[in-house]
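The methods section describes the discrete structure representation at length, but only in general terms. An entry of this sort, consisting of the sequence and the corresponding backbone structure tokens, reads as follows.
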Amino acid sequence: MSTQWNVTFQFILQASAKEMQEILETFFSADIPPSAQMLEQIVGKVNEVLVHEDNEIRPLAKNKKPGGLVDLSGARYVVILPDLHARREFLQSVLMWKPFDNRNVLELMDSENFVLLCLGDGVHSEVSTVDRWKKAEEEYFGHYKKHEAIDREVTESFHLMLAVMLLKIRYPQKFHFLKGNHENILNEFGNGNYPFAKYANEGAMIYEYFQSNYGKKVLEKYAMFEKLLPIFAVGKNFIASHSEPACRYSRDEIINYHNDGMLIDAFTWTENFKADEGTAEWYLDEFLNRKSPGDYYFGGHRPIRGLYNRINNDRY
């Protein structure tokens, strides 16, 4: 049994902030996996949106596809979110947050030059669900004859990602999601991707679940969504990517990222303290038109003890 989708995209495009809140609530509270019909329709629509990004915000690559860079220098406000990892309640709380004027984030995206930027890693719950992953792995080895644990993981991870997609569809210029290393539904090795296993065998387990329950067509559309995601964002006084890049890449190289596996790896897999010396500072100097101690390179990927800690000469 799975949840169904019966809202038109025309309604999504015209929805008020209040209506979007109500639509998203169904995804934040769903307790069974999404249906194949729901996944196929929403993923197909968000792929259309990503293919037709505003080229002022996301410059085209030489192959005429949307490039790897998102230019947010024209945004008045940008809220940057770290890795989501299936945390629906976290994204929901951000959308309901009222930073000023007693308006929540959805209302501000409706009426202000207000942008929400996610740094990737939408799927694969972490830390609090280790035991569930172990149970799901047993289900995987049993060819999912039992599937309670993996159903719960898919419910949380992919309803969150469907909410992400609907936000992109509704606010194409004001909501952006960068590719992280967990955006690899095919669990492939190549083009900057690597099979993923941390607490169990997460990448293979989700891939097998998608193949069995959603089929090749949905799997391919979802993989296309991941490959359409940008990897790098530049604002007025910040730069951001999933991880700190391992080394230096030019603007042109980042825009033309599609088949450069080393570059994609560099922006999505680099461990803390493993980047070349001075990398963050170089990007800030290279990509920002001004220099200020308040300019930072933001990333997620790996935790640092404490909140908002700075490394690499306090610039990342």
